Amino acid sequence: MGGVIKKPLVITGLDMGSSKISAAALEIFDASPGSRILAYESQPSKGIFRGSVMSLDEASNSVAKVLTKLSEKMARGPGNIYVNISGDTVAGEKSRGMIPLSSRGREVTKFDMAKCVNAAGTIRLPFDREIMHRIVLNYSIDDQPAIKNPLGLYASRLSCEMYMITAGINHIQNIYKCVDNAGYDIKGVVYSGIADGAGLLEDAWKDEGVLLLNMGASLTEISIFSGGVLSAMSVIPAGAADIKGDLKTSTAFDDIISRVKAKCEEFSNKSQNIKLAVIAGGFVFSEGAVDILEEKLPYPVKMGVVKNAQGNISSIDSLRGVTAIGLARYAEIEYRPKPFQIKGIAKDILEKVAEIFNNYF
After folding, report:
1. Under a CB-based contact definition with an 8 Å cutoff, are residues 47 and 21 in contact?
2. Which of 64, 67, 246, 331 is found 20 to 30 A from 96 (Cα to Cα)?
3. Class of domain 91-166+340-360
């Protein structure tokens, strides 16, 4: 997708939730590294429950209303639409891949890394599931584990560990059909936790280990980032609408938090640490949400605030529109032009020639 942006480009994030549907349009410029929020709109949601489309007509009408209202706030219509996916069909699993290089060892090339990633990404899935995201966690050379970038190092074999986000094919197709029936095209579907991470989390937090907890009306998403990337996730089919009465005495709330803690403990038992928890979703508007969670979780807790929310959006809407803004921010990285370097291209060609030589001689 990377290339020269000849004129300002509009990217739209569409958050299809159970209680509300939100849309945020971002404008990005070729000459500027930042982005500007052109418009934000939110409307009550119908036909969606726990991340799934339950009534196609109602859900499509809800999407159409939001995007029509968004269009009225802009000189241009919403384009390059990215939609979130969440729910009980979304799951994460690890996979590994390994390729031999040379019995005596040689330098690892970009092509070796790509080949290794491809090997790790080739997993057998049930016919009714599809891979949404392939996330490289780390590489290994020979018996040396957890290398971030093995390019140029000498090795006899190269391995990599990946984290795959998968979802039910029918779940994905229903999202596409819902937006299509509303009169719009989808550019991509993104797991909500990845979108939220793009909008809310500082790079340092993602490197050190952070729990991103998004509690909406009917879903609670657990997304754990470590080493700069999403490393674990889980979706609990319960949310703020299932909690009755005071948070401090709610059995339903305690059950959700127990499941959150269990997932975090499972992650931490693998020699990885969580230093911080960040909360998002409708839950952040609950009185004392941060203080209550700090009592129940063994980490400091921060309220999620969208980074650099510049443009036509209020402070309260930047809290409500976390996922919609995050979707557009996630896509923005893909659209940014990549630097054109002759030396880099020449080097890639030489690496390819070297790879062919190493494989056949």
Report:
1. no
2. 331
3. alpha beta
pLDDT band at 269 (very low <50, low <70, confident <90, very high): confident
- The residue-averaged pLDDT of 240-260 equals 90
Q: Which homologous superfamily is 203-306 in?
A: ATPase, nucleotide binding domain (3.30.420.40)
Tokens (6 digits) for 357: 């030589």
CA 223 vs CA 178, 226, 230: distances in Å: 26, 10, 7
Mean per-residue pLDDT for 281-301?
91
Domain spans of the chain, in order of start: 91-166+340-360, 203-306
Tell me the range of 32-36, 49-53, 247-251 where mean pLDDT is highest.
49-53
**Contact (CB, 8 A) for 228 and 198:** no
- Do 236 and 218 form a contact (C-beta atoms < 8 A)? no
pLDDT at 338 over 60: no
- 3-state helix/strand/coil string of the chain: CCCCCCCCEEEEEEEECCCEEEEEEEEECCCCCCEEEEEEEEEECCCEECCEECCHHHHHHHHHHHHHHHHHCCCCCCCCEEEEECCCCCEEEEEEEEEECCCCCEECCHHHHHHHHHHHCCCCCCCCEEEEEEEEEEEEECCEEEECCCCCCEECEEEEEEEEEEEEHHHHHHHHHHHHHCCCCEEEEEEHHHHHHHHHCCHHHHHHCEEEEEECCCCEEEEEEECCEEEEEEEECCCHHHCCCCHHHCHHHHHHHHHHHHHHHHHHCCCCCCCEEEEECHHHHCCCHHHHHHHHCCCCEEECCCCCCCECCCHHHHHHCHHHHHHHHHHHHHHCCCCCCHHHHHHHHHHHHHHHHHHHC
Phi first, then psi, for residue 86 (nearest 5°) are: -155, 175
Strand partners, 232: 224
Q: How far apart are the first and last CA of the chain?
A: 36
What are the tokens at 278?
Answer: 């960040």
Reported as a pLDDT band with limits 50, 70 and 90, residue 68 is very high
